[in-house]
Design goal:
It is built from 17 helices and 14 strands. The chain has about 475 residues and is of the alpha/beta class. The chain has 3 domains: about 200 residues, Hen1, N-terminal domain (c-terminal autoproteolytic domain of nucleoporin nup98), CATH 3.30.1610; about 50 residues; about 210 residues, Rossmann fold (3-Layer(aba) Sandwich). The strands form 2 sheets. The protein has a 7-stranded antiparallel β-sheet with strand order 2-3-4-1-5-7-6. Strands 10-9-8-11-12-14-13 form a 7-stranded mixed β-sheet, sandwiched between helices. The protein is elongated, with a radius of gyration of 25 Å. The protein starts with a strand and ends with a strand. It binds S-adenosyl-L-homocysteine (SAH). S-adenosyl-L-homocysteine binds next to loops. Its EC number is 2.1.1.386. It comes from Ideonella alba. Its cofactor is Mg(2+). This is Small RNA 2'-O-methyltransferase.
């Protein structure tokens, strides 16, 4: 089976760097199901193609398969389409041979990782169970131009009709790692035959690869069910996690539908306007940036970019990154910052990351300061453990700022009915003891010191409306 990846990005040979493969060599790896080769049939500055070619050993597959009953269709085990049809085995080979590229890691071209590149993927034999309509329904919402030709069952016997296989070209302009995750998840979905490797950890794999885009895909439920075929409870678990993990899913979906759902942010900001709490929060965080003399800052869950706008003109800040799981928020942030009209020096400071806080991402590392302003309360509490590891253990900045509402103060908002949270998407709102206990625990576990501050005018009993923790890495 074959997958060819072509780019016309200049220089096109950057593709080799992004795939961690030298274009002049053939890279072969033996797998349990056969051998995977990566090579470059076409290499020039203008155009470069990498091919992933997988030789499947169908007999070996059967030999390694556990629990196959002797009564199972015996011929089927030996005579099947696995050697040539793009299937879950191709995804497995992608993970084995292109894992770093798919994870968005590039030692030689880190600056290219997030850059949309012109890409064409060719799959000469893609099974499309569900036909061309499904093929289009899966890829077009992700921005692909789909070119598909259905293959006959047998070229010599046209009367036998069409096969379920298509020769497919998918064109897009997207960061390579993101496009690879699309293929990784969607190829097995199109194939829809039983995978040999569906297990508990497949939920994590699916979510890890699909997190930034799957939650809002119009075919989300079909994708998850087919991907986790024969394991309904796993599929339900995955859908649950997709729906709850991403604070912006419902909002984004509503916006994409064109329905006029009230924006949660608006509600929150109206509520807090009298205090101009939002500005006080930004000022408080900017003051921390100043006092720590942080020169590089990553704003995790940057939303519409309010903090970035505040930090951008600061002289001491030379590198600034906005990250969010919501595509739409990033778009709005770009508009808010109006970068095209900023001096080049400021434009060069800023970059964007579309990613998620609950999956390890090497691109979060290397900053003086990471900020999480009104973000943690948008995640389900059981997922905070992962967020902590992603931030404190893997990204490991020199300092971290976390702000979150102080729930006790809600009694002072006349417009807020008792017991309601400040934002419809908040999963929890904590008291000061709750927040401080959580923060202290993270600090102890990961080797940080932590101090606390209230933001906004404090009530004598209820405290300040916003609470802030400032973590500093201990030597
Ligand atoms: N920090 C911004 C936005 C706060 S709203 C501000 O103060 O204005 C919370 C933000 O967290 C939203 O933009 C939401 O998209 C983002 N978010 C929610 N879950 C996330 C996740 N798992 N990974 C990254 N960002 C997430």
């Amino acid at each position: 089976m074959l997958l060819a990846i072509t780019t016309t990005h200049r220089p096109a040979t950057d593709l080799g760097y992004l795939l961690h493969k030298h274009p002049e060599r053939v890279h072969s790896r033996r797998q349990s199901y056969g051998v995977a080769h990566v090579f470059f049939p076409e290499v020039s500055e203008e155009r470069c193609t990498a091919a992933l070619f997988v030789e499947v050993d169908p007999v070996g597959l059967v030999r390694d398969r556990k629990g196959t009953s002797a009564s199972a269709a015996l011929m089927d085990q030996y005579v099947n389409d696995r050697p040539y049809a793009a299937s879950s085995l191709l995804s497995a080979a992608m993970a084995d041979t292109l894992g770093s590229a798919m994870g968005g890691r590039s030692a030689d071209r880190p600056e290219l990782v997030g850059v949309p590149l012109p890409l064409v993927f060719s799959l000469p034999t893609l099974p499309c169970r569900g036909g061309e309509r499904l093929l289009r329904a899966l890829f077009e919402p992700l921005g692909y131009e789909v070119d598909a030709r259905q293959l006959p069952l047998d070229e010599r016997s046209p009367s036998w009709g069409a096969s379920p296989y298509f020769s497919v070209q998918l064109r897009t302009t997207a960061p390579l790692h993101l496009a690879l995750t699309h293929l990784y998840v969607l190829i097995p979905v199109l194939d829809n035959s039983k995978h040999y490797w569906v297990g508990e950890d497949e939920v994590d794999k699916l979510l890890a690869r699909g997190e930034p885009w799957l939650g809002t895909h119009p075919q989300r439920d079909l994708i998850v069910r087919r991907y986790l075929k024969h394991r309904r409870s796993l599929a339900d678990l995955a859908i649950d996690r997709l729906v709850v993990s991403d604070g912006s899913t419902a909002e984004d979906a509503a916006t994409a539908d064109g329905t006029d759902a009230p924006r949660g942010d608006e509600q929150e900001h109206r509520l807090e306007r009298s205090l101009s709490l939002n500005e006080r929060r930004l000022e408080a965080v900017a003051a921390v940036v100043e006092s720590l003399q942080a020169s590089s800052v990553i704003d995790l869950g940057c939303g519409e970019g309010r903090l970035l706008k505040q930090l951008l003109p600061m002289k001491g800040v030379v590198r600034l990154t906005g990250m969010d799981v919501s595509h739409r928020s990033l778009q709005l942030a770009r508009e808010r910052l109006n970068l095209d009209r900023q001096p080049q020096m400021l434009q060069d400071k800023l970059s964007w990351l579309h990613s998620s806080l609950v999956y390890r991402d090497a691109r979060f590392a290397g900053y003086d300061l990471a900020t999480l302003v009104e973000v943690i309360e948008h995640l389900d509490e059981p997922r905070l453990g992962m967020l902590s590891r992603v931030v404190f253990e893997f990204a490991r900045p020199k300092a971290v700022v976390v702000t979150t509402p102080n729930v006790d103060y809600n009694a002072r908002f006349p417009a807020l009915p008792a017991g309601r949270m400040r934002h419809p998407d908040h999963r929890f709102e904590w008291t000061r003891p709750q927040f401080q206990a959580w923060a202290q625990q993270q600090a102890d576990r990961f080797g940080y010191a932590v101090r606390f501050e209230g933001i906004g005018d404090a009530d004598a009993h209820l405290g300040a409306p916003t609470q802030m923790a400032v973590f500093t890495l201990q030597p």
